[in-house]
Specification:
Layout: E1 2-3, E2 10-15, E3 19-23, E4 26-30, E5 34-38, E6 43-50, E7 54-55, E8 58-59, E9 62-68, E10 71-72, E11 75-76, E12 89-93, E13 97-102, E14 111-119, E15 125-127, E16 132-137, E17 140-148, E18 153-160, E19 171-175, E20 178-183, E21 187-192, E22 198-202, E23 222-225, E24 229-233, E25 238-245, E26 251-257, E27 284-290, E28 293-298, E29 307-315, E30 327-332, E31 335-343, E32 348-355, E33 363-367, E34 370-375, E35 379-384, E36 389-394, E37 405-406, E38 412-416, E39 421-422, E40 427-432, E41 440-445, E42 456-457, E43 460-463, E44 472-480, E45 483-486, E46 490-492, E47 494-506, E48 511-512, E49 517-526, E50 530-535, E51 538-543, E52 547-550, E53 559-567, E54 570-573, E55 577-579, E56 581-582, E57 589-592, E58 598-599, E59 604-609, E60 617-622, E61 630-631, E62 634-637, E63 646-654, E64 657-665, E65 667-668, H1 671-704, E66 724-726, E67 744-751, E68 771-773, H2 790-795, E69 802-805
Parallel strand pairs: 5-16, 24-30, 39-47, 48-56, 58-65, 67-69
Antiparallel strand pairs: 1-2, 2-5, 3-4, 4-6, 6-13, 7-8, 9-14, 10-11, 12-13, 14-15, 14-16, 17-18, 18-21, 19-20, 19-22, 23-25, 25-28, 26-29, 27-28, 29-30, 31-32, 32-35, 33-34, 33-36, 36-37, 38-40, 40-43, 41-42, 41-44, 44-45, 44-46, 47-49, 49-52, 50-51, 50-53, 53-54, 53-55, 57-59, 59-62, 60-61, ...
Length: 814
């Protein structure tokens, strides 16, 4: 003997040898092939099956499996669609194993059960034969031998079943509801009195008693229930009846009880009247329409009323025991189950089933409250519009209809907590829809989700710590087997303080003086931030504008800028941005290292500087000279000479432009040279004066003497006016006697002027100007000629040479 689930029933295996049926890789194996099970219990019929992995270049898979006991034409009738098994069969298994479970076994379930599978191959159908033979039996107490006396009867009783129990089962015997014996023997011999009633059960399956018997036939004390099991609808009323015999004894007390509530009894071994139970208050009534018959009526049935109910009575010398099974009540609620077959845009083709936990006789179907069908079938198939609702009832109990089934109504979305949604807080979105069967829910984010991929399934969308990125439009879809609907979109606006604040400059790249420049403060904030602009921590502007503009930026605008964004949830400073305004060099400034007179032989530094960005490069030039004198900001002249005097200019240049400045440089002679020049000049004047006197005296003498042939007239002395006196020897006389030759000099008198050094340098005036007179040495040479060479001397100019004396500008290299 083998048992399925605990307290659910037992199986008796008469043949446990596996039988394999099949060929060419197809087959079904049943284990075992014969099963004996008790009425009311549960049985599992098991098998394994196989098929080729590949056939005709096709990978084979099983697409449909079924169990059956009979056929309609050539097609087997699936037990799941057989009304006799409705609600009592379950299929289990996978691609190798198959199992059929039948609950609440009835004697009519005795049959041969076969398994059938259909594959994806056109000819791939297979039925396993010979199948499994199931026999459903009920235990019976048989009186095999008896001997009757005046006061008692000696008899042998046997616990009998219609099929043989496997193994060595153990039996339990009951007398008047009390357990009296347990053992492996199916027989029991004892002395039995007229008031005794006996029954048996198999150990482990005590809920499946045999019907009780009296050795003395109908004269024994007994309780007989009209129904061993009753199924009733929730909300309805039920009558549970029994007949009882006290064999002539006066009944002192009688009541109904339920072992289910034994834990609430004062003494768990002593049943208590059900009418005193608070759960049944006002809902139970004990009726005695006739002698020896009792009825328990329960109204307004609840699913919690599902239980076993027993009747107990007591006489002066006897009481009916507590252990005999009574009537099992199952309270069921009708439910319409939906199997969706196909869906189009406007309707759904589906199969409905009026389901209950027990088998019912006749059904009534309703659409939108109107009766549309009656019959024994619990199923209804047809087209269903989205707005239709369907329900079912049991014939005769139309007031106890099932809940209606219908597609979901438009869902609603609730946000919790209400009000502002602040970043970091916990937020829950709840989707609800009126639907039966209950709807399943799917959440979507409308914006930023072009593929409409679901975010989450379930009625709630939870944000433990909501972020700014979670802002957006959300909606949910409710769907059941009859259709679906989507909710309206709900906006989730997450508020938060400024973050990621930064400064951008436009146009990008180098900033040139005079151009238009815009600084933009970018910040992520909700609600929108207000902005404050700073230059080196000095406030420039505050307001909602995110830009700060320069129409024509100048060099003074160079500096470090940053912005601050703020709203009611916080503030955030940007990093600093340095604005570097580039411009061409301004007019350079030129400085001379010597603050006074520049004296010959000294060292002089000329420095040029200019405001420029980028920094300028410098080049020095001397006026009227093509080649630069020097490069660099400072031009140094060591051992300066008078020839260095002149106009100099420096050029400041960068890639934005150039500018120049000029200075005049005057070099003064050394002091000792000035003194020597003065002495020389004085001496020269004395000599010239002596020459004048000498010439004048000689002329006087000559005028007193007659002129001879060949004599020349005296040349007069000519003076040029101005700073330069030019004395020229004009006399061409050729005296008869030898005389010295006279040389003349041109003398230049120059004044030293003070000139400005550079354009923006303010010269200092000297209180008085001093003349610098430079003299040239006059050389008197006496020619060494002989009288014989007179004719040659006549061709030469007797005034020979004169020297030009001027302010020296000779190059110091010479």
């Amino acid at each position: 003997m083998s048992f399925t689930a605990a307290a659910s029933g037992f199986l008796v295996f008469l043949l446990s040898v596996p039988v394999v049926q099949g060929q060419h890789g197809w087959g079904v194996t049943y284990t075992p092939t014969e099963i004996c099970a008790l009425k009311g219990s549960t049985v599992d019929i098991r098998c394994t099956y196989r098929y080729p992995a590949n056939l005709d270049n096709l990978t084979i898979t099983a697409e449909k499996t079924s169990w059956f006991t009979k056929q309609e034409g050539d097609e087997p009738v699936d037990l799941r669609t057989d009304s006799e098994y409705e609600g009592r069969v379950e299929y289990h298994g996978d691609q190798k194993n198959c199992s059929l479970r039948i609950t609440d076994l009835r004697e009519t379930d005795s049959a041969v059960y076969k398994f059938r599978f259909i594959t994806n191959h056109p000819t791939g159908k297979f039925t396993g034969s010979p199948g499994v033979t199931l026999t459903v039996t009920d235990l019976q107490v048989q009186v095999t031998r008896s001997s009757v006396t005046r006061y008692y009867t000696q008899a042998e009783l046997k616990c009998h079943s219609s099929c043989r129990l496997a193994g060595r089962p153990s039996y339990v015997w009951y007398k008047n509801g009390q357990k009296i014996k347990e053992g492996t023997s199916s027989s029991y011999t004892d002395y039995f009195y007229r008031g005794d009633r006996h029954s048996c059960a198999v150990k482990g399956q005590e809920d499946f008693h045999s019907p009780p018997v009296c050795v003395n036939g109908h004269t024994c004390i007994r309780v007989t229930y009209a129904n061993r099991s009753i199924c009733a609808l929730k909300g309805s009323s039920v009558d549970i009846s029994c007949t009882y015999s006290s064999y002539g004894h006066s009944v002192e007390s009688k009541f109904w009880f339920s072992p289910k509530h034994s834990r609430r009894w004062q003494d768990s071994s002593q049943p208590e009247d059900l009418s005193g139970d608070s759960e049944y208050a006002g809902r139970v009534h004990q009726l005695e329409a006739e002698r020896g018959r009792s009825t328990l009526r329960i109204t307004d049935l609840r699913e919690s009323d599902s239980a076993e109910y027993r009747f107990k009575f007591k006489t002066q010398s006897f009481q009916w025991g507590n252990y005999f099974p009574g009537t099992t009540l199952t309270v069921t609620d009708l439910q319409v189950q939906v199997t969706k077959l196909s869906v189009n845009r406007h309707s759904t083709w589906a199969k409905l089933k009026c389901h209950s936990s027990c088998r019912l006789a006749s059904y009534v179907w309703y659409r939108n409250g109107q009766n549309i069908k009656e019959g024994t079938s619990s199923s209804y198939t047809g087209y269903f519009d989205p707005g239709d609702s369907y329900s079912c009832a049991v014939k005769g109990f139309e007031d106890f209809r099932s809940p209606s089934v219908y597609s979901p109504k438009v869902p609603s979305v609730l946000v919790s907590p209400s009000g502002e949604t602040v970043e970091g807080s916990s937020v829950n979105l709840t989707c609800s829809s009126d639907a039966n069967p209950a709807a399943t829910y799917t959440w979507y984010k409308e914006n930023g989700n072009p593929d409409h991929k679901p975010l989450k399934t379930g009625p709630q969308l939870d944000f433990v710590s909501i972020q700014s990125s979670d802002s957006g439009e959300y909606y949910c879809a409710a769907e059941n087997s009859l259709g679906g609907k989507r909710s309206d979109s709900i906006s989730v606006n997450v508020t938060y303080g400024p973050k990621n604040t930064s400064v951008l400059v436009s146009p990008s790249g180098e900033t040139v003086e005079g151009s238009s420049v815009t600084l933009t403060c970018s910040s992520d904030a909700n609600p929108a931030a207000t902005y404050t602009w700073y230059k080196e921590n000095r406030t420039l502007h505050q307001g909602p504008e995110e830009s700060y503009s320069f129409t024509s930026i100048s060099s003074e605008d160079s500096g470090t800028y940053h912005c601050q964004s703020d709203n009611q949830y916080g503030q955030f400073n940007s990093s600093s941005l340095f604005i570097d305004v580039q411009y061409a060099p301004k007019v350079p400034s030129v400085l001379v290292s010597s603050s006074g007179e520049i004296v010959e032989g000294s060292s002089v530094n000329l420095t040029c500087s200019s405001d420029a960005n980028p920094a300028a490069t410098y080049t020095w030039y001397k006026e009227n000279e093509a080649s630069p004198e020097a490069s660099g900001q400072t031009f140094t002249i060591t051992d300066i000479r008078p020839e260095h005097s002149g106009n100099y200019y420096c050029e400041a240049q960068n890639r934005r432009g150039r500018h120049t400045s000029t200075l005049q440089l005057t070099v003064m002679a050394a002091p000792w040279k000035s003194t020597a020049a003065a002495v020389t000049t004085t001496l020269l004047l004395v000599i010239i004066l002596l020459i004048f006197v000498f010439l004048w005296i000689r002329r006087k003498r000559a005028s007193k003497q007659p002129s001879g042939p060949g004599e020349r007239p005296d040349n007069g002395l000519q003076l040029n006016q101005g700073h330069v006196c030019d004395t020229s020897a004009a006399a061409q006389t050729q005296p008869t006697d030898r005389q010295d030759d006279l040389y003349y000099a041109t003398v230049h008198f120059s004044k030293t002027q003070t000139d400005p050094l550079y354009s923006n340098f303010r010269p200092q005036r000297r209180e008085e100007e001093e003349e610098t007179v430079q003299y040239a040495a006059v050389n008197f040479k006496r020619p060494q000629t002989d009288p014989g060479t007179r004719s040659q001397e006549a061709d030469e100019d007797p005034s020979e040479l004169y020297s030009t004396v001027q302010k020296p500008y000779a190059n110091p290299r010479f």
